[in-house]
Design a protein that fits this description.
Length: 372
């Protein structure tokens, strides 16, 4: 007898577009037209309190809940004033959803592409440890698995040692888009880490591209906070010559953009040919005007990022912003988990890495032939 399809998606209003894409990708994978999205409401009362209401049963279902804690495009009215939802508001909705579902579903997985409080993943003195506390709160409520994209520090999973923590890397999807869209001489490529914290990601790109790496040493003054960030004391480059090279500056996220633009300025001063920014998430916390200016000045060619978090539609119209759809990737992982299959190869994109590496190698050979 064929096994009943018990896979259901709960999509927060913060994650509608990506969630719908995942639903379509699952239909493609499974060769059906089943709409797996469970209808739900997230009403907000006039005083700002909110709740979650399920419109369909999830009894005995394998439920995957998707939310975007960074979606400041979601608004609500409180005391007659329009407010933008904060990450704290979105996390409250996660807790409310778990409360509404748990005890009825068979399994419950929370998918936060951008992990809540991921930059507050460790203590530096007398301060809160918000990421660990939030993960523990969810697991204590009965969440069976937490899935995220490119966690700022993957070691945060040690806060919940008895709960699966699946950290997906979209690097192979981003590289696939770069190879498809950019005419680059890959024999003159370098991967650059904007600070030592991003070195592991940079090495991943360097291994596929078969290129050397360079890194910046970013030193901050943790006693001072400027625009919500610790002030940068020094930002110095360590690595080989970048003169005439095509550079990929790799990081997990771009927030205000000041640091990564400063990195591009310094590399251009050292003779870099072309620069591409690569980040799993672009938050644009100070808007995009500085990126417009930097692009016009020729500091960078393009920014490659994912649709894992909210980017306003007007931002997406910029010629320099390339947004890569990761819904098929998330759908592949969900499909495998639901069927009890291993996701190890999906986590690191092993097969795609091999294909990409071969393509880069072929392009390098072609470039050398043209050079001769």
């Amino acid at each position: 007898m064929q096994k009943k399809d018990n896979l259901r998606l709960l999509i927060s209003k913060s994650c509608i577009e990506l969630g719908q894409r995942v639903n379509l990708s699952l239909q493609t994978l499974r060769g059906d037209s089943i709409d797996r999205i469970v209808k739900m409401d997230e009403p907000v009362f006039a005083n700002g309190e909110s709740k979650v209401v399920l419109k369909e049963s999830v009894r005995d279902a394998d439920v995957y809940y998707m939310t975007d804690i960074n979606n400041w495009g979601c608004t609500y009215r409180m005391h007659g004033v329009e407010n933008h939802m904060t990450p704290q508001d979105h996390f409250h909705n996660i807790v409310s959803t778990v409360s509404a579902v748990r005890g009825h579903s068979d399994k419950f997985t929370v998918i936060e592409p951008l992990l809540y409080s991921s930059r507050q993943h460790r203590r530096k003195g007398r301060e809160s440890l918000d990421c660990a506390i939030s993960l523990q709160e969810l697991t204590n409520m009965g969440v069976d698995c937490i899935m995220t994209i490119d966690a700022h520090d993957p070691n945060i999973q040690n806060a919940i040692p008895r709960t699966p923590f699946e950290n997906l890397y979209p690097s192979h999807y981003i590289l696939e888009a770069i190879l498809a869209n950019e005419d680059i001489d890959y024999s003159k490529v370098m991967a650059i880490s904007p600070d030592y914290g991003a070195t592991e990601r940079t090495i991943y790109y360097a291994n596929i591209l078969g290129c050397p790496i360079g890194a910046f040493n970013k030193r901050r003054d943790y006693s001072k906070v400027v625009n919500g960030q610790n002030a940068i004391v020094s930002h110095e480059y360590n690595g080989g010559s970048v003169k005439g090279k095509n550079l990929f500056i790799v990081d997990d996220m771009i927030a205000s953009g000041g640091s990564i633009i400063d990195t591009a300025i310094r590399l251009k001063q050292k003779g870099a040919e072309s620069i591409y920014f690569v980040a799993s998430f672009c938050l644009f916390t100070d808007g995009i005007e500085k990126f417009d200016r930097a692009y016009e000045q020729g500091l960078f060619k393009a920014i490659y990022t994912t649709n894992g978090t909210y980017i306003p539609e007007e931002f997406k119209k910029r010629p320099w912003l390339k947004v890569v759809d990761i819904a098929p990737y998330i759908a592949e992982v969900i499909d495998a988990m639901n069927q009890g299959e291993s996701i190890s190869d999906l986590l690191n994109g092993r097969d795609k890495k091999l294909v990409l590496a071969r393509e880069v190698s072929a392009r390098k050979k072609e470039a050398r032939k043209r050079g001769n």
